[in-house]
Amino acid sequence: MAQESPKNSAAEIPVTSNGQLEDSHEHSFNRDLKCSLPVGLGLSETKITSHGFDGAKEGVVEAGQFPSSSASPKSSVISPSSTAASRLAGQGCDLIIPTGGRAQQKSGPVVLADEVKNPAMEKLELVRKWSLNTYKCTRQIISEKLGRGSRTVDLELEAQIDILRDNKKKYENILRLAQTLSTQLFQMVHTQRQLGDAFADLSLKSLELHEFGYNAETQKLLAKNGETLLGAINFFIASVNTLVNKTIEDTLLTVKQYESARIEYDAYRTDLEELNLGPRDANTLPKIEQSQQLFQVHKEKYDKMRNDVSIKLKFLEENKVKVLHNQLVLFHNAIAAYFAGNQKQLEQTLKQFHIKLKTPGADAPSWLEEQ
Question: Which GO terms fall under molecular function for this chain's record (predicted)?
């Protein structure tokens, strides 16, 4: 433009070509000028006059007089710079830089379209659901113990579970007694072996007493038969221990899960019955519908766990009969052959059940094997 724009009381602040102020005094005034702008004052209230971007003339920023400034300011002269223009435009609005690199104005703040889920809120929601479920189940258990609440009972399944628990206690008693017998037999065999060695030593020193040799052979034979019987008893103990502490225990763990599912089912069933007995209006109908859905979920879980327990009890009974039949035959034949003095029958019993005796010191490797 050929005509020079009129100047008012606004200051002219010379700046360099990159938008930086020339001295500190003018930089302080420019900062006061920015701070004194009212909230919401945009580019429409600040006039930027350009004297041609192609020539050597300079742009002028015009603004009204501000009461905070005590001295009459000088006019500010600003070279046409995109950095300075962006700095002034950023006072009253937000900037959004698209992928093209061109700055555009937006009247409102930038809001992300995809909301990020807060892990803390998810954990808090899980804790809330767990607390509510625990409260309902605790209230159901207390009401059952006090005789105020009703519980779902499967008579046939409950009877089988009671029998299983009673049998487990009896099997544990048999296992404990068999372990005691094994310990005592081991001590007796160890004593017989030492006694046989003592008789053998005396037979070499007292040649006139041949009876020392006879007793040494007898005690060694008894110790050998005792070791064979000990191997059969230990095999019996290991098999019964597997049955009691692994197979039956696994079934009882499923029974505990079934009982927990039954308590949850009864708790939500009680809640649904209480809501159905109350009034039906706009406030209670959504609660009844939600309670019906939760009741259906826990009913399906209860039915599934009851079916799992029935199947496990059936397979456990078949496995228990098979295992105990073989172990009881082994225990009887081994005890009978030992006290009858039938060494061949005792060894044949171990072969029948594929029992291999461990020789003393067989578990410890030799010094050559360790190299």
Answer: phosphatidylinositol-4-phosphate binding; protein domain specific binding
84 with 27: CB under 8 angstroms? no
CA distance 3 to 358: 117
Q: Which two tokens stand for residue 243?
A: 């049955």
Residue 333 lies in a domain: yes
Structural domains counted in the chain:
1
In a domain, 286, yes or no: yes
**Helical (H) or strand (E) element with 348:** helix 343-352
Which one, of 159, 307, 161, 156, lies nearest residue 248 by Cα? 161
pLDDT (tens, 9 = 90+) of the chain, 371 residues, equals: 444 444 444 444 444 444 444 454 455 555 555 555 554 444 444 444 444 444 444 444 444 444 444 444 444 444 445 554 455 444 444 444 444 444 444 444 444 444 456 888 888 888 888 888 888 888 888 888 888 888 888 899 999 999 999 999 999 999 999 999 999 999 999 999 999 999 999 888 888 888 888 899 999 999 999 999 999 999 999 999 999 999 999 999 999 999 999 999 988 898 888 888 888 888 888 888 888 898 899 999 999 999 999 999 999 999 999 999 999 999 999 999 998 888 888 888 888 887 887 655 445 554 444 44
Give a yes or no: residue 188 inside a domain: yes
Angle, vertex CA 324, rays to CA 321 and CA 329, nearest 5: 120
Contact 343, 355 (CB under 8 A): no
pTM exceeding the 0.70 threshold for the entire prediction: no
